[in-house]
Write a structure and sequence with these properties.
This protein has 454 residues and is of the alpha/beta class. The chain has a single domain, classed as Monomethylamine methyltransferase MtmB (TIM Barrel, Alpha-Beta Barrel). 43% of the residues lie in helices and 14% in strands. The protein has 14 helices and 19 strands. Strands 9-6-5-17-16-14-12-10 form an eight-stranded parallel β-sheet. A three-stranded mixed β-sheet has the order 2-1-11. Strands 3-4 form a two-stranded antiparallel ribbon. Helix 2 packs across helix 8 and helix 3 packs across helix 9. The chain is globular, with a radius of gyration of 21 Å. The protein starts with a helix and ends in a 5-residue tail after the last helix. The relative contact order is 0.14.
Length: 454
């Protein structure tokens, strides 16, 4: 299956209304496949331990993609696939991908269930609203954390020189250029000039303007695109995909199947997630990012999302060599202890399930720069420690962590946190004593609960 055939089918496939696609193809088929393959959540489990259900979920997800297809939202056409095309794409999906340059070059790999190898760490501002005055400093503070493998989505510039940026304007192109220049400057200042930068500047097609081998995002930098929920693409994603495939960048696609949406509960949504992973492989994407989103809570560490993420990742890890990563968005914000307890719970659910990790970030940032490089360090440390645990060992720790925040997962109840400039000395780029104390206290508690941090 090649990209030109995908693009052709996006113009010539069956014509269908979006609501009909979601109701008659996605929702109806998920219900049938849940029953056919007996993919059911018991309402209590946070980390799936049932290998057979993971395999059934894989079979259901593959059949869902074959019966549903991938919907192009702009052309209103369905991109349909034949079984042999799916098998071919899965056969040739890469097991590892290189990124970055020189001494800073790294590889991300497919991980198996209970794989003892450390997961790959994508971390950075994660598309947080980032003020131009802090953009370089904030990204430098992330890049100086050597445990982070790839600087992740360096931030969203909403204004320049006091002027709000209008999408698709000349000013947005200028912002995209600066996004590339400032991101590259940040990793240079951190002493990692070849560090890969996963870029997605949230500026639609103008994002291409930040691509430059000398001062911007390079051929060796992964580029992120996003599916629409559920199993939908748009012209912007297909245009990015076409350009970056031709340019030779590693291709990274994110999707956020919605618990409580067209997939139903976490079990049905896990089937949608598996179908989304396979759809990524069909498009030639090399890194597939699961965002286990909840339609009500709008974050990814609730009990439904924990189970969904563990089951879907196990299905993919056991039955393919797709390179998977999982995003971690929380109700709590940086500066609070709830923030790391939430992302640690999800990491302990997905890393032993075969995933790499992307994050963390608050699901509802408050204002500019609402992220913490120190918490990114802890995020990476917990991910590495989680690889030393079996699922059975991790499961009770996930339950203990979930108990700490389960009553505060709405945005109104969750801690408000603080922005970067209140958590760090922005001249020395070191955490304040109070922020360091949160890190130390949470780390000690994680060790007490059984996380093998050193």
């Amino acid at each position: 299956m090649n990209l030109k055939e995908i693009l052709k089918r996006a113009e010539t496939g069956p014509l269908l209304d979006a609501n009909d696609f979601l109701m008659k193809r996605v929702a109806a088929n998920v219900m049938k496949l849940q029953k056919k393959y007996d993919v059911r959540w018991d309402g209590n489990t946070l980390l799936n331990l049932d290998d057979d259900m993971a395999d059934r979920c894989w079979a259901a997800g593959k059949e869902l993609l074959l019966t549903t297809g991938l919907y192009c939202a702009n052309s209103r056409r369905v991109i349909e696939f034949a079984p042999e095309e799916v098998e071919h794409a899965l056969r040739f999906a890469p097991r590892k991908v290189s990124m970055g340059q020189g001494k800073d070059a790294v590889k991300i790999r497919h991980r198996g269930v209970e794989d003892r190898r450390p997961p790959f760490i994508f971390s950075g501002p994660f598309n947080a609203d980032t003020h131009e005055s802090m953009f370089v400093k904030l990204n430098e503070a992330f890049a100086q954390e050597r445990i982070i493998d790839c600087l992740f989505l360096p931030g969203y510039l909403k204004e320049l020189d006091g002027q709000m940026i209008r999408p698709n304007s000349g000013l947005s192109s200028r912002a995209a250029v600066l996004y590339g220049q400032w991101s590259r400057e940040a990793v240079r200042r951190a002493g990692r000039p070849g560090m890969p930068i996963c870029g997605h500047s949230v500026m639609a097609l103008n994002e291409i303007a930040c691509t430059n081998e000398e001062w911007g995002l390079r051929q060796s930098d992964p580029r992120a695109m996003v599916f629409l929920s559920e199993l939908q693409v748009d012209d912007v994603t297909l245009t990015r995909l076409t350009y970056y495939a031709a340019y030779g960048c590693p291709l990274y696609v994110a999707f956020t199947p919605l618990v409580g949406g067209y997939g139903g509960g976490p079990d049905g949504t896990a089937i949608v997630a598996v179908a989304s992973f396979i759809a990524g492989a069909m498009l030639g994407v090399e890194i597939c990012h699961l965002g286990p989103q909840h339609i009500k809570y709008k974050q990814q560490t609730n009990n439904h999302s924990l189970f969904l993420a563990s089951l879907a990742n196990q299905a993919v890890a056991r039955n393919s060599h797709i390179i998977a990563t999982t995003s971690h968005t929380t109700a709590g914000r940086p500066g609070s202890d709830q923030y790391p307890y939430e992302f640690a719970a999800l990491e302990l659910a997905v890393v032993p399930s075969g995933s790499n990790v992307s994050g963390p970030r608050p699901a509802e940032p408050l204002g500019y720069n609402n992220v913490s490089p120190l918490m990114a360090r802890l995020f990476a440390e917990v991910a590495h420690a989680a690889a030393k645990l079996t699922r059975a060992q991790a499961a009770p720790i996930v339950e203990a962590l979930y108990a700490k925040y389960k009553d505060k997962i709405t945005f109104e109840e969750a801690p408000k946190g603080q922005p970067f400039e209140e958590l760090y000395d922005v001249d020395s780029l070191t955490p304040t004593p109070a922020h360091q104390a949160v890190y130390d206290e949470v780390k000690a508690e994680l060790i007490r609960l059984g996380v093998p941090l050193t």
